[in-house]
Specification:
The complex is a heterodimer of chains A (about 1050) and B (about 100). Chain A is of the alpha+beta class. In chain A, the strands form eight sheets. In chain A, strands 1, 2, 3, 4, 21, 22, 29, 30 and 31 form a nine-stranded antiparallel beta sheet that branches. A six-stranded antiparallel beta sheet of chain A has the order 14-13-18-19-17-20, covered by helices on one side. In chain A, strand 29 and strand 30 form a beta hairpin. Chain A starts with a helix and ends with a helix. Helices cover about 25% and strands about 40% of the residues of chain B. The longest helix of chain B has 14 residues. By secondary structure, chain B is α+β, with helices and mostly antiparallel strands. The mean pLDDT of chain B is about 90. In chain B, the strands form two sheets. Chain B has a four-stranded antiparallel beta sheet with strand order 2-5-1-6, with helices on one face. The chains are: A alpha+beta (about 1050), B alpha+beta (about 100). The interface between A and B is medium-sized, with 20 and 18 residues.
Chain lengths: ~1050, ~100
Amino acid sequence: MKITDLSVKRPVTATVFYLALIVLGVFSLGRLAIDLIPDISFPVIVIYSTYPGVSPQEVEENLTKVIENTAASASRIEKISSTSSEGTSIVVVEYQWGSDLAEASNDLRERLDLVRDFIPEDASQPVLFKFDPSMTPVMVLSIEGRRDLESLRFIAENTIKMNLEQIDGVASVSVEGGLEKQIHIDLDRTLLASYGLSIDQIVNVVRAENLNVTGGAVTEGARKYSLRTIGRLDDLTEIRGIIVGNKNGKPVYLENVAAVYSGYLEDEMDVKVDRNDAIILSVQKQSGTNTVLISNRVQDRIDSIKRSLPEDVRLVELFVSADFINDAISNVWQIALLGGFLAVVVLLVFLRNLPTTLIVAVSIPLSLIITIIAMYFFDLTLNMLSLGGLALGIGMLVDNSIVIIENIFRYRESGAKAGEAARHGSQEMANAIIASTLTTVAVFLPLVLFIRGLARELFRDLAFTVTFSLLASLLVALTVIPMLSSRIRKVAIKKKSNTLLDVEEELKGRSAALRFLDRIYGATLSWALRHKALVLIAIVLLFGGSLALIPRVGVELFPESDEGMIIMNIETAVGSDIDTTREAVAKIYEIVEKNVPEKKLSVVQAGVSGGFFSTAAANSGSIQIVLKDLGDRDRTDREIIEVLRPLVAHVPGVKVRFSTHFGPGGGGAGMSGGLTVSVRGNDLEEGKELAVKIEEIMGNVDTVQDARVSREEGLPEYRIRVDRNRAAQYGLTAAQVGTTIKRAFAGETVATVLFEGEEVDVRVRFRPEDRVSIRDIDRISVASPLGFSIPLTNLVEVDKAYGPVSIGRENQQRVIEIDAGVTGDVRTAVNRIKEQVDQLAIPPGFSIVYGGSWEDIQAVVKDLVLVLVLSMTLIYFIMAAQFESFRDPFIIMFTLPMTFVGVIWIHLLTGTIFSAFSGIGLLMLVGIVVNNGIILVDYTNLLRKRDYELTRAVVAAGRIRLRPILMTMLTTILALLPLAFLGGSGSELRKPMALTVTGGLLVSTVFTLILIPVLYHLFEGRREKRRLRRMAERGDGQPEILEAIRG
Amino acid sequence: MDKVAVYIYYDRAIDEEVLDVLTSCCVENYTRWHDVSGVGTTGPHLGDRVWPALNNVMMAVVPGDRKKEILKRIRALQDDFPFTGLRAVVLPVLDMI
């Protein structure tokens, strides 16, 4: 190899080259972005629009469906789902993986512009957001100070929110809590009627009075003056003095019919940090942006905001998602380095030579540095998977170097000079290590090339880092190792023997421990070769028995990780007022205070504001508990939840759902880890009935918690039906009637005025005493275009009913979702639910779909199985080309069943559930375990070609290759142990991956050392018999050969 | 004085040692063939995966009186590497231009 020659002949050049790489690596490391996992959020665009005062059904019919149909015509759409609730439509458009969101949102915007005419006039222009509302906020802040909540809210809205929303990558900042200033115009219904005025007229007049209009320009002499009509209202007196009508030739002022005063927005919610009133700001990042990067940008901006805030106002970071990520990443670094250290210890034990060990150990840091540089140039982030890949492979980074250095020293020990031995020793093994590296990295090729989906997005980074690091270790083994080996001057020459080819002598030269192992192994292997049938039957039984245990292993998408956060979503009965909710939340908070000493702080919220992505609901509340760091507490988040669950169940009239992450369902690292059963069908009533039955079934499964139907029925409502014929007689439409009712009860923002230095909304509605009961509807008058006012009692009929709070749709079909969290094995839970649901009578037109993490598990499992099959095929092809044989790789492939045995048992013994992370471990294993088989079969072939008799060749190859096989296995496994068994932030995610590789490699290695020689002996023995028989038939067989065939 | 050609066939692993022998015998001129394959008493030297060893061949034309010294040193080297291929053949040089 030219590069080997070059590095041995020009050591200074080689040294300088690697020093340059180290500098570049350190530079790259400082610039790599950090994230918990690769960005696997679906490419999602959310279309948000409002249609004030309109019921969920109408929003669905007139707004949501139009937007859905428009979005459906766009390309690369994966799924469209929507929620229509009172006055709000949210359509979530999920694109295929790898879609360009900027392009997609431009396309969507253009399509929505085309259908603008089909969207109701009163509905707002749809707004597009590139983020998933269920995603964890990157940061939650609170603002505190010795000021009233009104001015704190003002600072939060006008200084902090506006400032943070300008940051590139921040999608939105929501402000909750505090008081928002508002100017109220409370109309007196009786006075209005006495002046012959209607609320619609007042709204129109106030609106018209609050306008600045430009009116062109006039030129006087040499000067040009622009004309501007100043109509903008800026104090209460001006508003009160607006003339709203005439009565008997006298003007009627607004103050004659209404009370005009400054007050606060009636927001049915309050927020506390622990027990103190607070204002909370949640910062959401855009989809596809880096959490730590955005968090750092926000942090920088916060530092500058803090400097500009008044002295008595403090901005406190309650939750920073980047903290957990940074912790988890530094934890993986430490563990990877510890693993590397253990691998070096193994080398020292086996090689019993410090300089040699150090030379081999050099390949670890150098390979890591080259990988870091490659990650920087390929724009990868440092995350649990990319780093996990490095940690997993750290023990394998020395394998190539071990092979090379062992061969170089065999030359040295037989008397070759340093340079000569380095060149020849490396060249001889170059092809072998290139082939074995290729089989290891080949497993990832199908994952990157053929799969489009969650599995690819999740594991692509891992595949890249494992591939880069192994290729880097190959480069180091072919350059640095020969160069450094050639610098060692003293080597004890074994004069007695040419150990290059003398098997027996080589075995004699080993340490006492290895000789002992060799004796046991040699005896076992010889016995196994004499009892091939027995060995094969035992292994088949073991394999079959292990497969039968698979159902006991359980399956989940992602292991739960303890991120130090518990979120309790609290609901009182539908229709409850804010005070009832406040009381319930306070009771539950007391329970939390008593039972969770691990609490660092908590955000307590009663009522949900009708803001972005949430419907105003006075019956909802939440308690978000931020726990102390993992090292400072004994209980995990799950354990605390299990203590709290029975305690809060005793609070009457309250439903509490627990999760450990923001967003629906909880689950791992911001991903939905829950189970969602969807009832699809059009009829609202039947669907609801079915959903409630399924909710009950799910509630009875012990591993399923917090089952909840998404469409809460039962919000009490009065349904007002307009008599269209009669309305038409007065020149009125149903919309006009509806608008009048909305203005009277909900009110309408008619202007924004500059009041005491801030922009404040002006809201017109009836005074509180005129909107007490449903009877007040009858007393409202609506202005007819025919010039008179008609009391509503002539136009509407009112019924009392219960309506849905929201209507969900998926792929343009109505859907009711029953969400729940699952502890442990999702498959068993789904099977138990399915069994019972199948016995229900499903109404025609309805279907039931099991989704959430179950849907993702199925997709990931399907992808992984496909990748496994393709990888195994590819490995077979590579080996077939390497051996120039179809039979030898076939024998080697038998290492794989033993791998599965190890993987199944390690999951059972450690109580680990098989997750997507175990899956990627299994994929890696396929590439690793065949290497042992390759080494064995290759060496047996070699000995056969050196005319060794079959049994002698098989036993000798096994015994000679025992040391490198054990060495590479132990370096890999010991390097994995910290990853598999040490705790720390994010340890739950990496454990299954490390355990899978450990278990699979251990079992497959042990069995490979027996099974592969047995199979080789079997196949080769038969071939030899056939060959001898042919010789005998041709008549050139010796009598003893014929005897052997018959025997 | 008649000249002789000394041919030394040896495992390439001991190339430097053989060169040292010639140097120590004041042999300045020689011809060397690298990576030569063949089968000898110390096993095949074929340079393939099965038999990876290869030989080098050194030929030096020296005055006849140096022959003994060279062979003596080669024999000493054989003692040092008893299982490493190393042979020397001496042929008469009939003519040389």
